[in-house]
Specification:
Elements: E1 4-14, E2 18-25, E3 29-35, H1 43-46, E4 55-60, E5 66-73, H2 83-98, H3 106-120, H4 125-139, E6 161-165, E7 169-172, E8 182-183, H5 184-192, H6 198-216, H7 222-235
Parallel strand pairs: 3-5
Antiparallel strand pairs: 1-2, 1-4, 2-3, 4-5, 6-7, 6-8
Amino acid sequence: MELTPAFVLHHRPYRETSLLVDIFAQDYGRVSLVARGVRQQKKRQHNIFQLFQPILISWYGHGDLVTLTQAEPSAAAYRLKGNASLCGFYLNELLVKLLPAQEAEPEVFAAYQTALAQLQQGDDEQIVLRLFEKRLLSHLGYGLLLAHEAGSQAPIRDETYYVYQPDNGPRLRGNTSSEPVISGRSLRHLNQESGFDETSLKEIKWLMRTVINYYLAGRPLYSRQLFAGLKQFNSQ
């Protein structure tokens, strides 16, 4: 096959000299491949498989696991430092666990590149993550209902609080409901992708965590544990 643009999402040792690599290819989606013998190669060649490095890659084979034939860098790697690197790990883990295997998702690929560029240039990390999550869910067919109530289709109102059901959408909070709620104002900010403040970002973060956990079906996100550990360390 011809070389295709891609990013490495995750890799791990395989046998004595090889790697198992999860990549996100622009024209093929998430692909798992074996990179044979690369751990014996010079460090410069091995660094092609670093995270956040745009590459061109090809492989052969069929089925769930294919074999690498060629990989080369296509541009400078995105330089993510500190919290930005943890955000990048989180994006990668979302893609590994939510993308279907070998289904092209060019819109998600573009959104991923945009998010990496924004993290590199120091944009607000919370806004970058929330908008990427929104776009990822939308392109996977799990788009959020943000402008109308579920069922009644009544317009969302800023001053009203809602309970968000991942498989349905926002419904009015009941008088005795103990479920976490989100304001119509925060839903509007997410829908319009503007106007964010500390309050709305906090509520939107809860909303996205609830929805993503639903589609993960119990699978943990280890990058969240890294965030939690770093937060605890910094508070000491």
